[in-house]
Amino acid sequence: MPIHPTAVVDIAAEIDGSASIGPHAVVSGPVTIGPDCVLSPAAIVMGHTTLEAGCHLHSRAVVGDAPQDLKYHGEASYCRIGEGSVIREGATVHHGTAAGTATIVGKRCLLMTNSHVGHNSELSDDVILVSGALLGGHVHVGPRAIVSGNAAVHQHVRIGELSLVGMLARITQDVPPFCITDQGGNVIAENRVGMKRAGLTLGERAELRAAFGAIYREGIGRNAAVQYLQDTMKTEAGQRLLAFYARGSGMRLYDPGSAAYLRLSSASKRL
After folding, report:
1. Burial class, 226, CB count within 10 angstroms (exposed 0-12 / middle 13-18 / buried 19+)
2. Which pLDDT value is given to residue 57?
3. What pTM did the predictor assign?
4. What is the pLDDT of residues 59-104, one digit of tens each?
5. Quick one: how far is CA 264 from the chain centroid?
6. d(C-alpha 179, C-alpha 157), whole Å
7. What's the rounded Cα separation, in Å, for the pair 48 and 29?
8. 3-state SS of the chain?
9. What does the pLDDT look like over 126-174, one tens digit per residue?
10. Which residues pair with 123 in a beta bridge?
């Protein structure tokens, strides 16, 4: 087992023989480290945390520390990092608050430098947090979403599948799937490049473009948007968009008189 002699490893930890733990790394508590995981120098993993196979914690990443929540009083809660995920320098992931709850990072996620995942958040597979991105507690991020640099996401917010949150964005309400936001958290366009790269079919992309045109460019309200999606979404991707809207009570749609809406309308004429 390649554990550097200066590393500090708790006797309660379970570490696969193929894992590598570098100089001055710390493994504290009943941590489980799976096959082929790497802890770079000075990486820290704590508590009831599980690193699945192939995870890499870079220098000074901290995973599994206590939540920044005044309701937390030492209850046993959990943190799980999915297979193949990479956590870069200075990034932090906190475990859950209430007893038995967990913070979950999915497979193949990339948490870039100094990003933060708050307690009880859940990242689906293939999520990217760009450097400095901050997720409050109980945030859910859908598959293949990207939260850009220094964006801040309020607690109890959902970030939809394949969405792209803009750099420096302030996200206080749900971001629907397949869209792009500006710094204010307003939806400004559908994520055409992301959808194409993800392999969505022409039919799916056309259906989603039509949906965003109806909801945002025409400025219909949330109830009307749900009804529109129920009537028109036939593809698998469209059904996922409908499910997101149908579950959400805090969706913010464009005010047709807002500056953001006018910018979107002008942009749409050029597409």
Report:
1. middle
2. 98
3. 0.90
4. 999 999 999 999 999 999 999 999 999 999 999 999 999 999 999 9
5. 25
6. 15
7. 7
8. CCECCCCEECCCCEECCCCEECCCCEEECCCEECCCCEECCCCEEECEEEECCCCEECCCCEEEECCCCCCCCCCCCEEEECCCCEECCCCEEECCCCCCCEEEECCCCEECCCCEECCCCEECCCCEECCCCEECCCCEECCCCEECCCCEECCCCEECCCCEECCCCEECCCECCCEEECCCCCEEEECHHHHHHCCCCHHHHHHHHHHHHHHHHCCCCHHHHHHHHHHHCCCHHHHHHHHHHHHCCCCCCCCCCCHHHHHHHHHHHHC
9. 999 999 999 999 999 999 999 999 999 999 999 999 999 999 999 999 9
10. 105, 141
Buried b (16+ CB within 10 A) or exposed e, 106-120: bbbbbbbbbbbbbbb
For the chain, list the domains and their CATH numbers.
8-159 (2.160.10.10), 195-270 (1.20.1180)
Encoded tokens for 59: 């220098």
Whether 116 contacts 132, CB under 8 Å: no
Q: Is the pLDDT of residue 1 over 60?
A: no
Say how far apart CA 67 and CA 52 lie, in whole Å: 21
Question: Rg of the chain's alpha carbons, rounded to an integer?
Answer: 20
Q: Give me 196's structure tokens.
A: 């194409």
Cα separation of 172 and 111, whole Å?
21
In this structure, are strands 14-15 and 86-87 parallel, antiparallel, or unpaired?
Answer: unpaired
